[in-house]
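Standup notes, protein team

Yesterday: finished cleaning the Alteromonas genovensis set.
Today: EAL domain-containing protein structure.
Blockers: none.

Input for EAL domain-containing protein:
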Amino acid sequence: AAKSKQGAAYRVYEAKMNLAVMQKVELESEAREALRGNQFSLALQPQIEMHTGKLIGFEALLRWFHPTKGAISPADFIPLLENTTFMLELDYWVIARACSLTQELGHSGYRNMKLAINVSAGQFIDPSLPDYLQQQIQRNELAPEQICLELTETVLVSDIKRARAIMNTIHEMGCMLAIDDFGTGYSSLSYLKSLPADFIKIDRSFVSNITDDADDRNIVNSTVSMVRNMGMQVVAEGIETQAQYDLLCEFDCDYGQGYMISRPIPEQHIWSVLSTNVENGYWKPPQA
Ligand code: C2E
Ligand code: MG
Ligand code: MG
Ligand code: MG
């Protein structure tokens, strides 16, 4: 009886697995078609210097507008596509699109803007990443320091030695590196000092509580000091209120992004939004 019970449980488990696998395969083929059908685009979220409000650049965020399902969030489709060959293709498309937008920005008077690009685990360890990046930088006549790759702790800690080597290669090309969602992984602080990163991005989950949670406030305050003392710069993500912004300024956080400054801007609207919100290179403070 025990055996058949086990068998039944196994069959249920197997059915679930098949469903997950099927959805993944289906999603992958839909996504492939979507890329050919121009359903993917980027949204750019402005990043500003906290103390001055100077616009320094943007984070490129992937968007999928499905003709019948509507907007599909990257948080929903990226985990499912992770480790498929298509994810790699999509990741490279993001780099090409981001570099081409950066060139367009320069031609429209927004010179030397920095573009932060999220890199998936598979792309980070793909041997063609450095060459591809180099090629896109040259083709679009960019300075390498205009491109910043955002890596999550999860991408880095699986093989720290290899990660460090890849980071060094990308650094030698002159590109910037940021550790994304800092504080949410399982990594220890000691690994930080061994990584050649330029920016640490403090995760939104800490930022959102700094005005009413003393622990999060202390974590953010001391992370900012520590990171700066180590010679890196800090970006706060997910700034939604003036109170959060003011506290982060007080903590000497270098850069920030979030809904309070601007929501991610769909690429087709970038020109009109920039022309109304940027003056002499500074992001206009929101009307109180
Ligand atoms: P992330 O890199 O940490 O990006 C920040 C996320 O927070 C974005 O969500 C952004 O829209 C959102 N956000 C920004 N400011 C605020 C705010 O003030 N409040 C709130 N509540 N949210 C804010 P999004 O665009 O849905 O992207 C989710 C995640 O998907 C990203 O997290 C990143 O890990 C991944 N992702 C996005 N685009 C790409 C891409 O091109 N390639 C790869 N590999 N991953 C990407
Ligand atoms: Mg990011
Ligand atoms: Mg982030
Ligand atoms: Mg995040």
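Follow-up from PR in the comments: Residues 77 and 253 are 32 Å apart (CA to CA).
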